[in-house]
Amino acid sequence: MMKRLNDADLNSIFTNVHLDFDIRTEAAKELMKRSGVKQMPRGREPKDHQPVMDEIFELFEFPIYELLEKVDHKLSVVTKEAGVAKIPSDFRENYVRNKIVDMIDQIAQNRETTGKGGKNRRKEA
Length: 125
Known about the structure:
mainly alpha, 4 helices, about 0% strand
């Protein structure tokens, strides 16, 4: 059973822990009001990273989109071929999804270990 937080618990949360949620939400305002905290402690104000991330991502969005369109086309050919081979759609979808996730993991692992991107894909034995 979950323990109900009292005012001392709430005060501890607001003064000792970095909050990962936006204090502008009604729930956060209510918790702050109940705990007697007037404002967030200095240096712990939540930051709105959304505009900066939007700006950064926007620079790469179109090239990424074009690459994903090419990948989508290749994957549609794979799934059509599998359909011709009478492989059920659920199996095809799960198989392709698992392979894509594995490839992304391989690319990330290669980038972390060698500092290189996806061109040096790890070959399976």
